[in-house]
Amino acid sequence: MKSLKIAIAGLGTVGVGVIKILEEHSAMIAARTGRRIEIVAVSASNRSRDRGIDISGYDWADNVLDFAARDDVDMVIELIGGSDGVAKELAQQSLSNGKSFVTANKALIAHHGAELAQSAEDNNIAMRFEASVAGGIPIIKSIGEGLAANRLTKVYGILNGTTNYMLSQMEATGKDYGEILEETKLLGYLEADPSLDLDGIDAGHKLAILGSVAFGVKTDFDNVYMEGIRRIKLVDIEYARELGYRIKLLGISSLSDAGLEQRVHPCLVPKSAPIAIVDNGFNAVVVDGDYIDRTFYEGRGAGEGPTASAVVADIIDIARGRSGPAFFVPIGEMQEARPVSISDRNGPYYIRLHVEEQPGVIADITAALRDEDVSLHIMLQKGSEQDGTVYVIMVTHETHEKRVMNALDQIDSLSSVIDKPLAIRIENL
Ligand SMILES: NC(=O)c1ccc[n+]([C@@H]2O[C@H](COP(=O)([O-])OP(=O)(O)OC[C@H]3O[C@@H](n4cnc5c(N)ncnc54)[C@H](OP(=O)(O)O)[C@@H]3O)[C@@H](O)[C@H]2O)c1
User: Fold this and answer.
1) Which of 187, 223, 350, 417 is most solvent-facing, going by the fewest CB within 10 Å?
2) CA of 284 to the centre of ligand 1 (A)
3) Is the CB–ligand 1 distance for residue 161 below 6 Å?
4) Which residue puts its alpha carbon closest to atom 10 of ligand 1?
5) pLDDT digits over 168-225, tens only?
6) Pick the catalytic residue: 206, 233, 271, 382?
7) How far is the CA of 419 from the centre of ligand 1 (A)?
8) Which class is domain 139-300+332-343?
């Protein structure tokens, strides 16, 4: 069979990894697909940068958009990044010129996935984005193919390796957030815009894609609730452990009669839950369905090898002639789901208050909770800090999000309360 001719746009961490795999495993991949994968051209911003690999055998394009117009290119691989700009233009032009398209770009798919999948469908061409979610875990294929017999009800997981690393390191070393943040920066683990990691946006992109694949609903990133890890202190990790929990930044999506729930936020999860022991740069995804009950997937969430492995798997899939819809159902069959607001959540909460040690403080706090009908399951108060302040930790019974937030607003206005109160949702998974 004729070789598959590909062009690679972007030669950073992932692009270099893709070239290494395609070169090292070329014979094995040819045997598995029945055809050779041939890199015909590459592009990046800076031609003279040393990338640690020899790219002199490939054509160089100063403008990646040239790939979309070349007759000798069957498939374009976009490994540049960003939801708009050149990545989006390259996707649009490649698909409308009949080139199949593979990307690792979660921001692009979270924002424009439906529109691009429509273009792929209109042009009868394949588009794939396995590497955009959970790096080395083949979760999109598992959901779209392996679990295709099931009505899926819930998908959740640890979708950002950097924040999982930070939370794991806080617990392992006993260092506070600020110190671990500096160390993580030095290791180069944070995105160029750290907010993508720290504020849950990267996990939000991945969750929107996962929900879309799992439930056959149009990707709706605008309605993902996102809260990151910036307010987590070492005391929270320590108290959580004492209470039998660990703190994880989870993305949770479910589809029910109420609509589509999509939220990313720190959670207290029971120490015994399989997801609680997934540490450092690892990701994990749990998928619940009507006939499989529960499935659990774990693997490296990012990095050159795992991410490039997922990109090459997509290339192989298309080389084998698989060209079904990108989200596994035709765009015309995808539902527009009604968003469920975070303020409709019901469940228990961990609350951390930092207060001045004065008579009557606890009475004021419990009065605010009573006014909102929030009942307490546990209340902990340990010896005071050196400055005469004290942390008060509370665990509520199952209650309504709005009631907790109203009570915390009231508590925040008390003169004896020092820091803004923090509530962390408890997920008994
Ligand atoms: N890194 C990971 O672990 C990981 C995991 C999952 C998904 N992803 C996704 O994979 C994609 C690539 O990530 P990465 O980590 O490989 O990024 P990266 O290391 O920053 O590489 C980006 C590449 O794009 C090139 N580039 C930038 N603007 C360009 C332009 N206008 N035209 C042509 N090339 C351009 C850069 O060129 P220069 O090298 O010359 O500057 C660089 O080679 C992103 O969408 C990312 O979200 C990454």
Assistant:
1) 187
2) 24
3) no
4) 104
5) 999 999 999 999 999 999 999 999 899 999 999 999 999 999 999 999 999 999 999 9
6) 206
7) 39
8) alpha beta
- For residue 259, the SS3 value is strand
Q: Which residues contact 119 (CB under 8 A, 6 or more apart)?
A: 92, 95, 96
Domain 345-426 carries which CATH code? 3.30.70.260
Query: CA 86, CA 64: separation in Å to the nearest integer?
Result: 8
DSSP per residue, 216-247: -B---GGG-EE--STT--HHHHHHHHHTTEEE
In short, whether 43's Cβ falls inside 6 Å of ligand 1 is yes
Element (H, E) at 196: helix 195-198
Q: Looking at residue 1, what is its pLDDT? A: 81
CB count in 10 Å sphere of residue 259: 16
What is the CA(156)–ligand 1 centre distance, in A? 26
User: Is 271 one of the annotated active-site residues of the chain?
Assistant: no
In this structure, the residue with its CA closest to atom 38 of ligand 1 is 45
Q: Which helix (H) or strand (E) holds 178?
A: helix 177-186
Residue of 11, 14, 304 best suited for mutating to test ligand 1, as the one with most atoms within 8 Å of CB = 14
Mean pLDDT of 250-271: 97
Residue 383, pLDDT > 90, answer no
Please check whether the domain covering 4-132 is classified as CATH 3.80.30.20: no
pTM for the whole thing? 0.97
Confirm or reject: Cβ of 80 under 6 Å from ligand 1: yes
What residues does each domain of the chain span?
Answer: 4-132, 139-300+332-343, 345-426
Is residue 86 within 6 Å of ligand 1 at its C-beta? yes
The 3-state secondary structure of 293-353, one letter per residue: EEEEEEEECCCHHHHHHHHHHHHHHHHCCCCCCCCCCCHHHCECCCEECHHHCEECEEEEE
pLDDT in tens, 350-369: 999 999 988 899 999 999 99
Q: Is the Cβ atom of 228 under 6 angstroms away from ligand 1?
A: no
Whether residue 48 has its Cβ less than 6 Å from ligand 1: no
Contact residues for 37 (Cβ-Cβ < 8 A; gap 6+): 3, 4, 6, 22, 26, 29, 30, 315, 316, 319
